[in-house]
Amino acid sequence: MNNPFENALSQLARAQKVQAFPEQFLKQLSVPMREVRISIPVVMDDGRLEVYEGYRVQFNNARGPYKGGIRYHQNADIHEVKALAFWMALKCAVVNIPMGGGKGGITVDPKKLSKTELEKISRGWVRGMADVLGPKKDVPAPDVNTTPEIMGWMVDEFAKISGDTTRATFTGKPIELGGSEGRGAATGLGGYYVFETLREFYSVPNGATVVIQGFGNVGGHAGEIFSKNGYKVIATSDSKGGIVKEDGIDIGALEAWKKEHGTLSGFPGSRDISNEALLELLCDVLIPAALENQITAENADRVQAKFILELANGPITPEADEILFAKHIPVVPDILANAGGVTVSTFEWQQNLSSEHWSEEDVNTKLKNILMRESRVVHEKAVSLKTDLRRSAFIVAMERIASAMGYTL
Ligand code: NAD
């Protein structure tokens, strides 16, 4: 299994080969400023006491408070959280929002918890972390398996402990608890804006076929948005497996199907496909929207997509990147492609701090302007340095972080 943090450092080294940065800066950017590990005791519904491990990694705050989601997953560990925190620092810089990078997690399979247990573990994470959080210190958000409801419990727990009533310490909250319009769909919608800005440079036709791995918050919204805009989603999957329907999937109907049956399998007119085979389908656009390390040295050569939009964090290993680059398959990197989520999270934080509530139209217009502008910056950098979009996005982000840290480049 690839260690995601080693992958992240290897991406940094690949970018450094294209444009050199001061050695001291690279040293600083290769280690988090702070790592916090806590134990979270939870009295389960049957009276047993379970103790879970929770994390927060505060990677870099040169450009603003640490910012990043909290992941609940049985495989979450400190290496994964560290990698995700590192990518957050670069992500906020690449879209030029005033935030640093952080990430959190708990090693737990939330599907095995009751709602009461889920609430206890979420409040427990906040109690353990409260000292290092705050609207000007560190602002967490949702990630895999964490929802607006969980953010609502967390912001409530934090207010009780700290007395902070701004609600600006957590984003991705329900609207009635200070959440922003547009946050739920922001990562998928942002990915679409990035895609629409870049696709013309890579000759991806309007109406192209799309395959999406992962049918959660990000993948589900992306499916809806791409379909609504004339693209044909021909396959998608979740952790149990996927489905293919060459004449196009009605995403709304699939959502209803999954809600009723608990699985994508059996959707009328479709056939089942494994997650491995899904990544190798012939299509115009492949959107990994699940977890890390999905396209590796082992399967990259079999990828037949013409263009890849990384909505998940870290789905392609550095070795696979080299293979895809050699195959001339453009990859829009996660730190740009999925930055819509943190951008609208930042809008939420700004609204909370100024006691404002912006309309969905305002939110989406601001999101579109930022992502289109910064996508062009990354594209132009790739052209001028004759490199791929990942390396150019890293370089744009690194230049901004280095300058905030006082380095003269
Ligand atoms: P989610 O929990 O809502 O959905 C994850 C989806 O992936 C689910 O459908 C799950 O069944 C599926 N999945 C899990 N393991 C899988 C596997 N092995 N193969 C195929 N599918 C699998 O999470 P999400 O918020 O949609 O996050 C998805 C990815 O997007 C993550 O990498 C996350 O870090 C990234 N991301 C999320 C946001 C956000 O705003 N939520 C922002 C930026 C990046």
Explain how this protein is built.
The protein is of the alpha/beta class and about 400 residues long. Among the domains are: about 35-165, Leucine Dehydrogenase, chain A, domain 1 (Rossmann fold); about 185-330, Rossmann fold. It is about 45% helix and about 15% strand. The chain has 14 helices and 12 strands. Strands 9-8-7-6-10-11-12 form a 7-stranded mixed sheet. It has a 5-stranded mixed sheet with strand order 1-2-4-3-5, with helices on both faces. A hairpin with a 5-residue loop joins strand 1 and strand 2. Helix 1 (about 5-20) packs parallel to helix 3 (about 80-95) and helix 1 (about 5-20) crosses helix 14. The model has no long low-confidence stretch (mean pLDDT about 95). Bound molecules: nicotinamide-adenine-dinucleotide. The site of nicotinamide-adenine-dinucleotide has 24 residues, from helix 7 and strand 7.
Measured by DSSP, the beta-strand proportion falls in 15-25%
Largest sheet: 7 strands, mixed
Q: Using only CA atoms, what is the Rg?
A: 20 Å
Share of helix among residues? 40-55%
Strand order of the largest sheet: 9-8-7-6-10-11-12
- The CATH class assignment of the domain at 186-329 is Alpha Beta
Bound molecules: nicotinamide-adenine-dinucleotide
Low-confidence stretches: none
Tell how many strands the DSSP assignment holds. 12
Count of alpha and pi helical runs: 14
* Separation of the first and last Cα atoms: 36 Å
